[in-house]
Specification:
The complex is a heterodimer. By secondary structure, chain A is of the alpha/beta class. In chain A, 45% of the residues lie in helices and 13% in strands. Chain B is built from 16 helices and 13 strands. Classes of the chains: A alpha/beta, B alpha/beta. At the A-B interface, helix 2, helix 3, helix 6, helix 7 and helix 9 of A face helix 2, helix 5, helix 6 and helix 11 of B. Chain B: Homodimer.
């Protein structure tokens, strides 16, 4: 009987049922919550799970500038639906470089930045790590905690990963000393995954001085910085300030990788708009790097989808469109900041036990509330508030109408015996 | 604390060699840079009309109009993509009657066109088939097939497919090679419009492969990039799919809507696996999602929304069918005309194989020296494996191309 059961759990090529042995994979921690929220019929449900912006009416938001530009593109008879080059739309790539490294970055002029259009932030990370695996393989250091998909992407790319102690639960701040200590023990040539701003899930970012310390240890240990930038514009509200770390490291002469996403800051979630940048030491090496990057991309999707990149390119390469975008982005990020303030106020008014300063101190989409997994479960099951079990709450899902209910629910679970 | 500028006397990337790509590589760029008025691009990888222009299908334009009127948002789709697209794609791929009975058992996932289907499919198979299972790919096949297999962690091996002497399928070689493959091997099969040869299997040959599949518990992985684009008939082009699924063989199917809807730039495809029951299908979908999450998180929706509308709107669907027929018929006509033009000009070679083949491509056997001559003397661009894209031929250039081919090959053995 046992032997039969054993056989049933293995692939049996002579069996008619070739998939019999496969077990159900767990739902994705983030998409799974979105699905659970959708299925919930409660009238008081709140979606604080997935990092997707909502208006004060709890509606998804399509940027006005995006609507305008999409219409232009769709109605442009000179644009056919042909394949893009493997590395994507040239205008888009150029625009991405300028946004990330600065309009006048000497690295752009010198041809030291290799850029390829990718499938959102995930696509850029996967392409970047596949490239790492093939050409500069090493251990990857990821922040503890980090976005859950980071670990999966790195694993699928075939790399080992270790954690550096990023978040200090006692202060709910960045653990600089711990991070530096850990990275100074890393093997030379290891890769360090760094969130450029609005760290996901903690919302806690290093200060400029702390970034210099990180740069220092990377230099000493010859660590390769791999930046993930999914929230440019969402941290300080200033798109230049938000990429201080990338620009500083570039200025300091690092060769590095940057993954850039436009899912959130252009609201182009479903068209998969992103880019990977590899900074080299000269343009001859850039040519070789590009040719190999193209092989990685070719074997995932051949070439990237056009529409999202065309829209983004129109924003990034036209001053008027760019300014319109920046204005709209300020409105979006402003609302999130306002919700942080409102939630803190409500929690203070209700005299909810605990220190909630971190809600307004943290930046970007998310707050690492400090709620335990059990408290999060209760929040969901009893109060229909959906967030990650890590305590990560997406502030973009809070509205002026639901913030009071949210604060009351938090109070209830915190005080729950 | 001082922070020094990193001394750039070492390069992280110095040992990175120049990567090599496939036959398409460089051809388009060269062609574009050429200003010779009679230049011909026979390396084009999407359809061209009789004026040499890319085509935006009217059915696609109408479908896009409908999509835009819905004023949909830009939210993340599920990891597996748009359900309505997946269902519509599976329906057209497997046929209405099979779909009606078995849709609950078919695990589907929206992917980044044909490449995405192969990548996701191979990664899935690598995870769940016994280690050491090989993928058998036809010789020749799309350059990237064995490369994707390698990236996904699978070993690949070729089976004989194309006979360069007869320029037809080497069926006895194929049968021998598949028969001697280990039981349980994965076998990649081009459903129609074999790329790069244009040589397709006949129904009686598919039946023999079906027998072999059953005998050796082969896992058939169909790459169907050209459904409808081959003969103009969706059902005919999927005859292998119909045959295998009706016989109860669980297949894996990769579909692309790049060519048959002219949506190359939007990267719209579907990967599906036939499972034993609905529960198993859910399990397989969950595992596909796990893999897809780390490749692209979720697929782009623009193309999928268009495809779904074309397939589900009866009027637009009929319009699409008529446009498919036009495209397929034009390419068939060019094949026949080209063969005739070469005969009329007195070529000593037998080019009749071109008119017997299907779809976009044909392997001519023209060698590198002749390819170079065609470019330098006649400004005619081929794929660098000697392949030609029939879509690049039209009534204005066919005689010119025939003459050029004749000139470079008349004293040669090809």
């Amino acid at each position: 009987m046992q032997k039969l059961q054993l056989l049933q759990n293995q692939f049996n090529p002579t069996s008619d049922d070739i998939f019999f042995h496969i077990v159900q994979a767990p739902p994705d921690p983030i998409f799974g919550i979105a699905n659970a929220y959708k299925a919930d019929t409660s009238s008081t449900k709140i979606d604080l799970g997935v990092g997707a912006y909502r208006t004060d009416e709890e509606k998804p938001y399509v940027f006005e500038i995006i609507k305008k530009l999409e219409k232009e593109i769709v109605n442009d008879p000179t644009l056919n639906k042909e394949y893009l080059p493997i590395e994507g739309l040239a205008d888009f790539n150029k625009g991405c470089q300028k946004l990330m490294f600065g309009q006048n970055s000497p690295l752009i002029a010198s041809g030291q930045i290799v850029t390829a259009q990718c499938l959102g932030g995930t696509g850029a990370l996967r392409v970047g790590f596949e490239f790492v695996k093939r050409h500069i393989p090493g251990d990857v250091y990821v922040s503890k905690p980090t976005w859950s998909n980071h670990n999966q992407v790195i694993e699928r790319a075939g790399l080992n990963q270790f954690e550096y102690p990023y978040f200090e639960p006692k202060t709910k701040g960045f653990n600089c000393a711990g991070t530096i200590e850990c990275l100074s023990q890393a093997r030379m040539g290891s890769i360090v995954l760094l969130h450029v701003c609005a760290h996901n899930p903690t919302g806690v970012d290093p200060t400029e001085a702390e970034w210099l310390q990180i740069a220092d240890v990377c230099k000493k240990r010859r660590l390769v910085p791999f930046f993930d930038c999914a929230y440019q514009g969402f941290a300080s509200g200033c798109i230049e300030k938000d990429v201080f770390a990338v620009r500083k490291f570039a200025e300091l002469g690092f060769q590095m990788i940057v993954a850039q996403s436009f899912s959130k800051n252009m609201g182009l979630y479903n068209e998969r708009v992103g880019a990977v940048h590899i900074v080299t030491s000269n343009k001859d090496i850039s040519a070789r790097v590009l040719s190999n990057l193209k092989i990685v991309i070719r074997t995932i999707c051949s070439n990237p989808p056009a529409i999202g990149a065309r829209i983004a390119a129109k924003i990034l390469t036209d001053e008027k469109n760019f300014n319109a975008w920046v204005e709209e982005l300020k409105t979006v990020t402003g609302r999130i900041i306002k919700m942080r303030t409102l939630l803190k106020q409500e929690l203070d008014n209700l005299k909810v036990p605990g220190n909630w300063d971190h809600i307004t101190r943290q930046t970007g989409f998310f707050t690492f509330t400090g709620l335990t997994p059990e408290q999060c479960d209760l929040l969901t099951k009893q109060y229909h508030v959906y967030l990650l079990r890590s305590g990560r709450m997406s502030m973009a899902g809070i509205t002026s109408k639901n913030v009071r209910y949210l604060a009351e629910s938090i109070k209830a679970v915190v005080q729950n015996k | 604390m001082l922070c020094f500028k990193v001394i750039r006397n070492f390069s992280l990337w110095s040992s990175v060699p120049l990567g090599q790509l496939d036959p398409m590589s460089g051809v388009v760029a060269q062609y574009e840079a050429d200003d010779f008025p009679q230049k011909v691009n026979l390396g084009v990888n999407t359809y061209r009309d009789n004026n040499g222009n890319p085509v935006v299908l009217e059915s696609v334009t109408k479908a896009l109009q409908i999509v835009r009127e819905k004023k949909l948002d830009n939210e993340y789709p599920p990891i597996e993509g748009l359900q309505s697209f997946i269902e519509a794609a599976i329906k057209v791929g497997y046929g209405e009657s099979y779909y009606a009975k078995n849709s609950k058992n078919i695990a589907g996932c929206q992917v980044l066109s044909g490449t995405g289907a192969v990548r996701l499919g191979f990664e899935f198979l690598n995870k769940f088939v016994p280690s050491g299972t090989k993928v058998f790919v036809p010789n020749p096949t799309k350059n990237i097939h064995p490369i994707i297999a390698k990236m996904a962690g699978l070993q690949s091996q070729e089976y004989r497919y194309f006979d360069p002497i007869t320029r037809q399928v080497d069926f006895s070689g194929l049968s021998e090679d598949l028969y001697s493959a280990p039981n349980g091997s994965i076998v990649l099969l081009h459903a129609c419009s074999h790329n790069p040869t244009g040589c397709d299997l006949e129904l009686y040959q598919w039946k023999q492969i079906l027998d072999l599949t059953k005998q050796k518990q082969i896992l058939p992985f169909f790459d169907m990039t050209y459904q409808g684009f081959t003969s103009g008939d969706l059902e005919k082009d999927a005859q292998a799919i119909r045959l295998f699924t009706e016989a109860g063989v669980p297949i894996i199917l990769g579909q692309s809507f790049d060519k048959n809807m002219g949506l190359s730039g939007q990267r719209t495809g579907c990967l599906s696996l036939v499972c034993s029951n609905e529960k198993e299908k859910q399990i397989v979908v969950s595992q596909l999602n796990l893999i897809a999450r780390s490749l692209w998180s979720c697929p782009p929706v623009h193309g999928a929304r268009i495809v779904e509308t074309v397939l589900n709107n009866p009027e637009i669907f009929q319009l699409w069918l008529s446009e498919l027929r036009i495209m397929a018929q034009r390419m068939k006509k060019m094949r026949v005309s080209f063969t005739k033009a070469l005969k009329d000009i007195g070529s000593p070679h037998d080019w009749s194989y071109i008119s017997k083949q299907f779809g976009m491509y044909s392997l001519t056997g023209i060698g590198p020296a002749q390819i170079k001559e065609l470019v330098e003397k006649y400004h005619i661009y081929l794929l660098n494996n000697g392949g030609i894209s029939i879509a690049g031929l039209n009534e204005s250039n066919i005689k010119y191309v025939a003459k050029a081919f004749h000139e470079v090959t008349k004293h040669k053995i090809i």
